[in-house]
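dumping this here so i dont lose it again. seq + smiles for zinc ion
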Amino acid sequence: MSRLAVRLAVAAVAVALALAALAVPARWQSPPRALAQDGSVTWEWLGWSHFRFTSTTGKVILINPFVQNPDSPVKVEDIAKADLILPADGHRDEVGSTVDIAKRTGARTFQPFELGTWLIEQGVPQQQVVRSNPGGRLRMESIIVRMVGSVHGSGLPQPTPTTPYGGPAAGFVISFENGWTVYFAGSTGATQDQALWAEMYKPHMAILPMNGDREPLDFAMQVRLLKTNNPNLSMVIPHHHRAAPQPGQTTVAEVQAAIDAMDLGLSVTAPELGRVYSFGMAGK
Ligand SMILES: [Zn+2]
């Protein structure tokens, strides 16, 4: 081969590789988790209401690990490490693979009492299951997780005679080692209690439900309540939605319009699937 032919061949291979890279599904392009180099907390949206946080010391916290959701960039076997799982209520799309992941990783679970009893009945070792109620707290080294209420149901996928219902539905407020605090609302509707939690815990970030038929005004009112005596709130993320909403489903544009109509001065960030966000990168 002449030099030119070699160069052309090399260029052709490079183009082919670049095209192949584009064709690789997103799930293989994103690292399963990331420990930030600068001591910040990282988080990922893994579709629906499944979030993965990695603390500054590498503790992995999963919220609502519904890995079967149609947008999930990971499979259950991709989740090799978890230290704590927070299922917000007993619904199938919120408990998700909590049982499998807890058994495989040895992660503790923190949830309303009756839902915890049900997880034990499903085979999660009892010593991993921390059963609590709104107002309860779990400490993991210097991370603090508080359970708060949620105006929502908690029916179980397979009710048992001893545990026919999952107890109250929950939300969570997590404060990480660096003080950064996130409020995960669960599937709640707007409730005055959110003003209380805002004042008490002053979250920097709020993750609020935006399911298909969510009233945009409900979403916006939650944001307003969460600003009560809370100067920290600077990032608002929706959950419980498809990566590409179907026609007629509530959109980020609609909830943003409702927020703007209240003059709240906050913009909603639509999370990108599998992207690793770092506290300080995309918000405060
Ligand atoms: Zn639910």
